[in-house]
């Protein structure tokens, strides 16, 4: 180092800088627990010559056999002492190599090797090795997973991984558990299945048909798969499989279609493929040929239309004549479709009778083929014929005979509602609506369920609403019929509502009737009955709220109306103040549950003025409620409003702060997976203190630490972790409340840490490293030792002092110690210097070490302030001269940015008659070349430097920026200088041509150049005004050739017409006559000069 600095001080930079190469760019050390690792690394110079330097390791555990080195190549031997480090611990650091070829960082990683388990596929040391084993042989991985030896693999893994395995041992350790473990520790992705088809379509399956679907998995691993079908015609071959049954990544799912279970038309089915993570399905659609004719569908349509029009007739929407005409036409159409259908013929006759067209009806009945003993004929057809004849003849004796026959048939066929309807419409004893209604009711319980039957019953109620004395199944069905077909009258609707309101119990069917009644007749009686029914059934919820809200607005007098109004309200949709009557009602007693009370109180806080009577009445009640809910750790949007109003720091107790801390870390979690029964949380210490029942809406859990892990327990007892995607929403996050309980939680954490903490001693620091302790405590221990024993150098104390200083802990004593003894990487020493200057610590020796190291490695950066500080002390003359020369060289040769302070020091050194290398003077000339007008105080010095450098033939292009009088003195006033900066060890040629006027030569002259200084090449030319220099440079390097761009140069400055060059330049601007006279004068002066100045 001293020899290099000595050469630099004299301006000698001819020493070739080594080109450093590290064959190994990163050192990786695998060290057994408690062992001392021996290693080495190589440093090579790709050029010739030795490498000299020193190595600074970043870790106190590393000791180099020799810190300094010299040679080529160089082998640096070192040891690493792992005492105190546990398996699995890793240290990242660097060797800083400071040498004559620069300063380099060679990084290292020291890993304390973990225990391992030997398998048929090699040793397993960590979860990555275990994952590779599982990829190759899942069965062997499962066997290892079940053994207690597996703890050796996990012993030094992340705590979250170990905690998961600890708990999984309590649950299950089979293939599925292994899959979940690998997914949970992020060593593999979850298995997803994809299907080759989303839908399968088949046509006209005449016999059992086999088909298949391809299932593809996305990755390796194990997952059970359950397969089932929705559709009796689908039969699955294998209902339970696993991914072990896959061939490669795919599996052929085979199934068959059972033709005997197919019906005509479209047969819809679905095949489900279920894993613990997803349920996929394939729709199966089988088209079977339909043999139904279009005539059948047309017949059904006409019958339906006829029934609809009959209901319109009895409701009064159609008058009789219009209805008769329509039905006659439809009857004719039906007879055309089925001419042999006797039922259609009798219907036509019946319609004629309705329309008082007796002759048409008579003609049909007289031609009807009636035979009471006909085999296979339905009794309803014969009875229908007799019934119509009785209506047509209006003969009492005939009617009695018909009634006898109808009674006989009804006794024989008591389930025929058609026979009963004929009886009640023909027999005089059923002329009373009450009797008719009674008989119809009896028939209903025989299982009758037909529109025309209900129409008969409805007509009875329409005529006499008082027949609705009770609400049995029959009456409810009749009301449903009347409402469905919009037949019910207002009178019947009001009567029904009144009757329902007096029912003792809630009946969902009655509520359904009332709900539809209200759509037809929005009557207060109906609304009253609806609310009473709901209250009797203890019905709440959004669907009920609309009825309670209407009743509250209409101020109906219904017991418990306001309680059920509040119980049904949805706080999330409430965006307005509650009715004032609600506030007033609950002022006299509040029996609401906690959730609904919170809605009430939040609404008051939001919309009521604090000075109002209502607010003042509720205030104390609301505050008590707030503290009670806090202790119970309840959270909702309404409680957020209440908490923000009443929770103040002054009234906080330790118990309340604990509750507040809990709700600030509460989360609502939800999953899409079905079958989840519980949510578990594995805490940072591995325990499970939360096992919360999961509902369809989700579950509330508390997450205090980012290392906590959520586990989902399914109904079948399986446990899932990262494989189940979930949504987690923070339920309550208020900065104000977090700050409120922060101090208490900090105190609690500190106490827990103090219990587990290791005392800070130098011995423990050597064992566990500085990262294991509080940095401030380490700093206090270091500064105490320095104050007590600070005069002696201690390598470990120096290491600790620097590390805590780097982390921001230092004082004057510690900085003084570092400034006195610390040596290391240049960047690190500069950090020490900067911090030391802030505390006004003496840094002369430190500055000298930094400048020396930078010059030796030839890597200067941000050092001017350090040199200025060093220079203002008592600098070593050679180091001072070397620095100034090197900075000057970098400025001249490489245009390195140099501050004016450095140039001022050079000027000061010259004025004090100190030795300066020539390059320092050149640097001064370059710096002030375009700044001379602002620094005329240096005129004499600069002029002297210019004369001296020109005499030594150190001529650069920037000299031409100085005044002409100076240039005349050094004979540069008539020159043009071109300059080229090359790479080290390059050869440079210049190719040029001098063109006059517009003429341009075709060839270039070539000339080899010698360096003016270091890698700067320059050449001088004399140009007249009408001449142009065109040139380019050719640089030959070791590995390639470079040709610069072609440049043009002309004499731009004005030259005084003095001397030969000046006179000739001036003549160029004259006209022909003037040129002739000037040339004669020039010739005369040349002759006279020749006579006066004779050569000896």
From TrEMBL:
Domain DUF5717: 1-747, 794-1093
Lineage: Bacteria, Bacillati, Bacillota, Clostridia, Lachnospirales
Protein name: DUF5717 domain-containing protein
């Amino acid at each position: 180092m001293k020899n290099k600095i000595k050469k630099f001080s004299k301006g000698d930079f001819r020493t070739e800088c080594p080109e450093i190469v590290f064959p190994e760019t990163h050192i990786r050390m695998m060290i057994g627990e408690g062992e001392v690792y021996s290693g080495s690394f190589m440093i090579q110079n790709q050029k010739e010559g030795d490498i000299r330097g020193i190595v600074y390791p970043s870790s106190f555990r590393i000791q180099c056999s020799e810190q300094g080195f010299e040679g080529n190549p160089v082998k640096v031997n070192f040891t690493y002492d792992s005492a105190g480090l546990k398996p699995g611990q890793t240290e990242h650091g660097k060797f800083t190599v400071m040498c004559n070829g620069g300063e380099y960082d060679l990084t290292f990683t020291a890993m304390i090797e973990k225990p391992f388990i030997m398998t048929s596929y090699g040793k397993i040391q960590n979860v990555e090795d275990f994952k590779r084993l599982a990829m190759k042989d899942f069965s062997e991985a499962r066997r290892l997973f079940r053994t207690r030896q597996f703890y050796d693999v996990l012993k030094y893994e992340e705590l979250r991984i170990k905690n998961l395995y600890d708990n999984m041992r309590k649950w299950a350790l089979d293939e599925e558990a292994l899959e979940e473990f690998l997914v949970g520790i992020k060593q593999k992705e979850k298995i997803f299945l994809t299907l080759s088809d989303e839908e399968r379509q088949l046509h006209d399956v005449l016999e059992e048909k086999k088909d298949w679907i391809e299932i593809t998995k996305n990755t390796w691993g194990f997952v059970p798969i359950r397969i089932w079908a929705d559709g009796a015609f689908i039969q699955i071959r294998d209902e339970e499989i696993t991914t072990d049954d896959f061939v490669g990544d795919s599996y052929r799912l085979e199934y068959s279609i059972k033709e005997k279970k197919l019906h005509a038309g479209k047969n819809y089915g679905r095949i489900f493929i279920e894993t613990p993570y997803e349920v996929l399905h394939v729709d199966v659609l089988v088209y079977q040929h339909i043999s139904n004719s279009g005539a059948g569908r047309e017949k059904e349509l006409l019958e339906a239309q006829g029934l609809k029009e009959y209901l319109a007739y009895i409701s009064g929407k159609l008058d009789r004549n219009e209805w008769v005409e329509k039905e006659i036409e439809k009857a004719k159409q039906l007879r055309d479709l089925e001419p042999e259908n006797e039922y259609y013929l009798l219907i036509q006759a019946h319609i004629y009778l309705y329309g008082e067209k007796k002759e048409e009806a008579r003609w049909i009945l007289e031609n009807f083929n009636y035979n009471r003993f006909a085999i296979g004929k339905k009794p309803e057809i014969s009875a229908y014929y007799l019934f119509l004849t009785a209506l047509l003849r209006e003969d009492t004796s005939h009617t009695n005979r018909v009634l006898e026959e109808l009674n006989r048939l009804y006794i024989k066929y008591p389930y025929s509602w058609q026979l009963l309807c004929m009886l009640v419409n023909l027999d005089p004893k059923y002329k009373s609506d009450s009797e008719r209604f009674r008989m119809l009711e009896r028939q209903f319980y025989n299982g009758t369920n037909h529109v025309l039957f209900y129409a008969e019953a409805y007509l009875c109620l329409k005529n006499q609403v008082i027949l609705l004395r009770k609400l049995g199944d029959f009456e409810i069905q009749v009301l449903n019929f009347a409402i469905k077909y919009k037949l019910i009258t207002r009178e019947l609707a009001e009567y029904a509502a009144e009757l329902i309101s007096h029912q003792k119990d809630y009946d969902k069917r009655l509520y359904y009737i009332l709900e539809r009644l209200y759509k037809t007749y929005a009557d207060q009686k109906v609304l009253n009955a609806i609310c009473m029914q709901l209250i009797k059934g203890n019905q709440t919820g959004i669907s009920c709220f609309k009825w309670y809200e209407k009743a509250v607005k209409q101020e109906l007098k219904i017991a418990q109306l306001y309680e059920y109004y509040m119980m049904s309200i949805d706080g999330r949709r409430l965006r307005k103040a509650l009715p004032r009557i609600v506030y007033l009602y609950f002022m006299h007693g509040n029996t609401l549950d906690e959730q609904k009370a919170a809605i009430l109180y939040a609404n008051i806080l939001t919309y009521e003025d604090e000075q109002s009577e209502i607010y003042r009445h509720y205030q104390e009640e609301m505050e008590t409620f707030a503290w009670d809910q806090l202790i119970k750790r309840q959270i909702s949007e309404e409680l957020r409003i209440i908490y923000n109003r009443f929770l103040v720091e002054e009234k906080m107790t330790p118990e309340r702060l604990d509750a507040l801390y809990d709700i600030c870390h509460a989360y609502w979690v939800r999953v899409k997976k079905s079958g989840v029964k519980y949510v578990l949380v594995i805490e940072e210490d591995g325990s499970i203190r939360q096992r919360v029942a999961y509902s369809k809406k989700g579950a509330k859990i508390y997450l205090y630490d980012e290392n906590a892990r959520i586990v989902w327990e399914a109904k079948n007892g399986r446990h899932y972790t990262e494989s189940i995607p979930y949504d987690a929403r923070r339920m309550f996050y208020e900065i104000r409340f977090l700050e409120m309980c922060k101090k208490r939680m900090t105190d609690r954490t500190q106490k827990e840490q103090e219990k587990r903490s290791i005392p800070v001693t130098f011995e423990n620091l050597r064992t566990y490293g500085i990262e294991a302790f509080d940095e401030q405590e380490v700093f206090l221990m270091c500064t105490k030792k320095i104050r007590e024993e600070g005069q002696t150098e201690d390598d470990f104390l120096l290491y600790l002092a620097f590390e805590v200083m780097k982390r921001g802990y230092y004082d004057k004593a510690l900085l003084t110690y570092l400034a006195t003894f610390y040596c290391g990487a240049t960047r690190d020493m500069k950090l020490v210097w900067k911090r030391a200057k802030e505390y006004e610590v003496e840094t002369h020796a430190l500055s000298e070490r930094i400048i020396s190291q930078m010059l030796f490695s030839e890597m200067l950066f941000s050092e001017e302030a350090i040199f200025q500080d060093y220079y203002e002390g008592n600098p070593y003359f050679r180091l001072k001269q070397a620095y100034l020369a090197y900075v000057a060289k970098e400025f001249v040769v490489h245009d390195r940015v140099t501050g004016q302070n450095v140039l001022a020091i050079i000027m000061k050194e010259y004025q004090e008659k100190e030795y300066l290398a020539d390059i320092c003077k050149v640097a001064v000339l370059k710096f002030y070349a375009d700044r001379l007008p602002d620094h005329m105080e240096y005129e004499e010095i600069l002029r002297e430097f210019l004369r001296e450098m020109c005499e030594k033939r150190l001529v650069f292009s920037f000299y031409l920026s100085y005044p002409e009088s100076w240039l005349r003195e050094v004979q540069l006033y008539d020159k043009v200088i071109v300059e080229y900066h090359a790479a080290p060890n390059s050869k440079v040629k210049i190719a040029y041509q001098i063109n006059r006027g517009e003429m341009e030569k075709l060839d270039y002259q070539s000339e080899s150049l010698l360096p003016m200084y270091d890698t700067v090449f320059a050449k001088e030319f004399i140009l007249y005004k009408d001449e142009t220099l065109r040139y380019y440079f050719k640089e030959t390097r070791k590995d390639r050739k470079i040709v610069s761009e072609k440049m043009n140069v002309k004499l731009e400055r004005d030259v005084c017409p003095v001397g030969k060059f000046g006179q000739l330049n001036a003549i160029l601007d004259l006209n022909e006559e003037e040129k002739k006279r000037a040339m004669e004068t020039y010739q005369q002066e040349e002759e006279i000069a020749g006579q006066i100045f004779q050569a000896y």
